[in-house]
Amino acid sequence: MSLYAHVTGWGIAVPDEILTNEKLAQIVETSDEWIVSRTGIRERRIARKDQSTATLAADAARKALERTEIDARDLDLIILATSSPEHIFPATACLVQDSIGAIKAGAFDLSAACTGFIFALNMAAQAIRSGSIENALVIGSETLSRLVNWDDRSTCILFGDGAGAFVLQASDEPGGILSAVMRSDGSGGNLLSVPAGGSKIPTSHEAIDKNQHLIQMNGREVFRFATRVMASATRDTAAHAGWDVEEIDYVIPHQANQRIIEAAARGLRLPIDRFIVNLEKYGNTSTASIPLAMVEALDNGQIKDGSNLVLVGFGAGLTWGALSMRWIEPKVKVTRLERRRRSLLTWLARMRSFLRRVQRRIEGLIWGTSSKGQE
Ligand SMILES: CC(C)(COP(=O)(O)OP(=O)(O)OC[C@H]1O[C@@H](n2cnc3c(N)ncnc32)[C@H](O)[C@@H]1OP(=O)(O)O)[C@@H](O)C(=O)NCCC(=O)NCCS
Questions:
Q1: Are 168 and 323 contacting, i.e. CB atoms less than 8 angstroms apart?
Q2: What is the model's pTM?
Q3: Does the beta carbon of 315 lie inside 6 Å of ligand 1?
């Protein structure tokens, strides 16, 4: 039985539209200087109308799969962490499963706000290490621009859209995901939330008039909480992996705020250049922020074979967690022919999905079932 769970594929998808601080200053009373000095963010991406959490997730997933020796049909499990799902249900993960043609994968969403990617990665790694599955896809994907109150200058400056995906595979080679800590404290649930649209405050005109369908946050309290938990979670997971803090080559933190990351570096007594940061380009993309930062560091060669990594995050819930990973460079080379074969598979997946919808329509007509819920 394989004992280790390795990341063998990685990909990101971000919308092309860039919203700079200068452009934001034309929407709300703020300035580039204020935003940069309080957060480090310079710009963020905003999804087009035809893009959504599922489409960004599927794009990132396809890119991640392209790097591996498997294709979507080999996936056993898809976990999609998101704070901006397409619907309350069905799970966004199922829409991605259909879109990429992962015909034998179980798929579900994981809701742990910005810590979601770490929790999802840990759950998938545990399933692999237990021997119950071999191949998993873990995605963090967001279109937070749809949940932001564009009149609230204390929150709209922070968030952005994007997605990141990792393929995880079982292996006998030591390394990969080694340990994780997952924590929560629901007593702080009110500090960061989208109050309406669920069962407690169902969607109503009144809820919308009060902006309860949009993100509400107590920024100062969230800031205090974040600075408290980042260093301790990093220390805990490193200890579980058998490392001293100094043995961590890179920390990949949730990209919420430069000052929070600097506080974590001080708390851990690690130089700031051991932290991988790209929040200036994307803002806080919640579950997507850690893969967005890590994939960039992989692609520019910063993370090397054998690097000791800690991924650490915090978010609404309150939730926080960290995960340690020894990075082992996958040795797979995908040929051009193989890429062609995969494009064909993607096309076939779309056709299959389309035909299943048509089949359901026809069966509905024959059996006289209502057409409700078919769109
Ligand atoms: C949101 C955050 C940047 C605000 O920074 P801050 O230094 O705490 O600022 P405050 O909320 O204390 O506000 C200070 C002043 O700036 C003002 N202000 C808030 N947003 C502003 C903006 N975008 N531009 C200009 N001024 C702004 C406030 O109105 C306040 O003015 P006042 O003193 O006249 O009332 C900071 O609290 C933060 O980053 N918190 C963590 C949020 C986070 O990461 N959330 C996601 C977690 S996953």
A1: no
A2: 0.95
A3: yes
Catalytic residue among 114, 122, 156, 213: 114
- When computed from its CA atoms, the radius of gyration of the chain, rounded to whole angstroms, is 21
Question: Quick one: which of 61, 52, 55, 71 has its CA closest to 11?
Answer: 61
Using the mean position of ligand 1's atoms as its centre, give its distance from the Cα of residue 23 in Å: 18
Structure tokens at 290: 């850690």
Q: How far is the CA of 232 from the centre of ligand 1 (A)?
A: 25
* pLDDT tens string 103-128: 999 999 999 999 999 999 999 999 99
What domains, with CATH codes, occur in the chain?
A: 4-326 (3.40.47.10)
Determine the number of helices (DSSP H) and then strands (DSSP E) in the chain.
12, 13
Question: Helix H segments across the chain?
Answer: 21-24, 32-39, 53-66, 92-100, 116-129, 153-156, 205-209, 219-241, 258-268, 279-282, 289-299, 336-367
**CA distance linking residue 222 with residue 217, whole number of Å:** 8
Ligand 1 mutation pick, 38, 157, 260, max ligand atoms within 8 A of CB: 38
Q: Mean pLDDT of all residues in the chain?
A: 95
Query: Does residue 284 have an active-site annotation?
Result: yes
How far from chain centre, in Å, is Cα 59?
Answer: 13
What is the number of residues in the chain?
375
Residue 247 has pLDDT above 70, yes or no: yes
The rounded Å distance from CA 217 to ligand 1 centre is 10
Ligand 1 centroid vs 40 CA: distance in angstroms? 13
d(CA 55, CA 163): 9
- What are the tens digits of pLDDT across the range 133-144? 999 999 999 999
Contact 199, 95 (CB under 8 A): no
Provide the terminal-to-terminal Cα distance of the chain, rounded to the nearest Å.
44
Active site residue 114: yes
Q: For residues 208 and 325, give the distance between their C-alpha atoms in angstroms, rounded to a whole number.
A: 43
Q: CB of 224 closer than 6 A to ligand 1? A: no
Q: Is 254 an annotated catalytic residue?
A: yes
> Which pLDDT tens digit goes with each residue over 311-331?
999 999 999 999 999 999 998
What average pLDDT does the segment 233-239 reach? 98
Tell which residue, 8, 121, 131, has the closest CA to residue 71: 8
